[in-house]
Amino acid sequence: MKCYICLTDSIVNRKDYFNMLKVTLISARKNTSLRLICLYDGKIGDPVYNLLKDFKVEIIIHELPYKKELMEIYSHEWMETELGKDIEYSRIFGTFMRMEIPIIEKEDEYVLYTDMDIIFNGFFVKFGGNLFFISTVSLFFFLNPIKSCRYVCFLVTLKTPHH
Predict the structure, then answer these.
(1) Is the confidence at residue 34, as pLDDT, over 60?
(2) Cα separations (Å) of 110 from 35, 138, 152, 157?
(3) Strands of 35-41's sheet, edge to edge?
């Protein structure tokens, strides 16, 4: 089964995020047979790209097509007022990139999505006749009636395992 991850090069200089991604990839390779695919808005040959290649992740270089609109909606002023802090646009773009999966995915009706801070522990459940991998996660399904990929299973960390 395909499992998508969406990243921007914002984590190249963030050792904590880079290491979380590494743990996600190590645990996915050790405990699953998932076909890992990354939508990546970054440079070929940068440290994140190379890490993904080292773990045999299929990389699709992809730039979010509506960056300008997101920058208008989430202006620096809005972030300071509403969130009390400014967030790097590349992080916002990475968050919204997961919405591109149903547009890019043309082969499968069901795919998985995971964040970069997941530890894959090998627990599976059945849903709709299909086998889905679950970590300490919640499932959300995304319906896209236009493209062939109709459902994306989101893996989202709810809490750390020791809570």
Answers:
(1) yes
(2) 13, 16, 6, 20
(3) 58-61, 35-41, 2-8, 110-114, 151-157, 137-138
